[in-house]
Here is the input.
Amino acid sequence: MHDGKIATARKKKPSKAMIAVIAVLLVLLLLVIIGVVVGNRYLNRIDIEEADPSERTTLQIDPEIKEEENIKQNIPEKHVQDFETADEAIDRNLNTGTVWYHEDVYNLLLIGSDTRNPQYYSRSDSMILISVNKQSKQVKMVSLLRAAYVGIPGHGNARLNAAYSYGGPQLLIDTIHKNYKVHIDNYISVDFTAFQKIVDIFGGIEIQLTEAEAQALAEDFEAAGLPVPNGAGSYHMDGATTLKYVRLRSIDSDRNRTQRQRNVLNIIAGKVKSMSVSQGLELLDEILPLVKTDMSKATIVSQAANAMRYLQWNITQDTIPHTYPKLVNVDGTEVLLLDWDQTVSYIHTLLYPGLQPQKLPS
Here is the structure.
């Protein structure tokens, strides 16, 4: 039974830390304004982390999250064999295969996390890989499902979203490298406060809701003073209600939730094409202090120079795992047990069609 069916069979508890990472893609697109119009003033507002991991600030692991992610202590008897098989598959995958890199494919990881306590890293409940293929002139938006059961270096096997809480962006990237065999060039992370500000600066957005979505969000519309939706249709939403939309999971599944995130990404990307310079500067003032990245200033300006060109290319969406893997429930927590041979083969075909891996430049 796949995750959609299980989700509809019982009422799920809403995610406590789901973040809409629409903001981070928009930040990348707007950085062209930095390079061309406003220069170093805005670059200095971004939290650029040191390239050397040893120079990064190390935060503690939130003991509450660590306890919640200790899945193995509560595995139901009927799923013990499933996890033993999954552990063996992860071990084989971690110790075989090549992490793919190609000079014509640029992979940017967008990370969304709800940083409630600055003493700790939080979970990365939203992870979208933006893969730019310069040969085929295509951009892929690929959601990595947070419930995927993976091997986290130095921390055993757990759900993918735990990697960020254990060691921040670098450990998450290392986890993706080792499990999915895909090289990540850079990351951008942000929390949900920036997302709400983006939507509100644009005066809200129009979103097509299903009947189930409209019903689930009715109280949020009312609380925001917006016309309450009545059935399926197109509705105007502000930052707060749009955040509720991309966090919504109780009516279906995590896979559907990531689709909602990508829906909003597409809407905002369209708005970027016609935004004014004043809107761009206002946006930068509001959200850049909330953005963290490992991109150098030179890399930011270089990528910004290409951002508008990328927007003209074909942009497609996908989810990894692409097919429905085995889903088990451990004490109220969903865990996806992946077929790693199939997963790695699919993501390589998706991101590197007709290409072969190259050696990473030294």
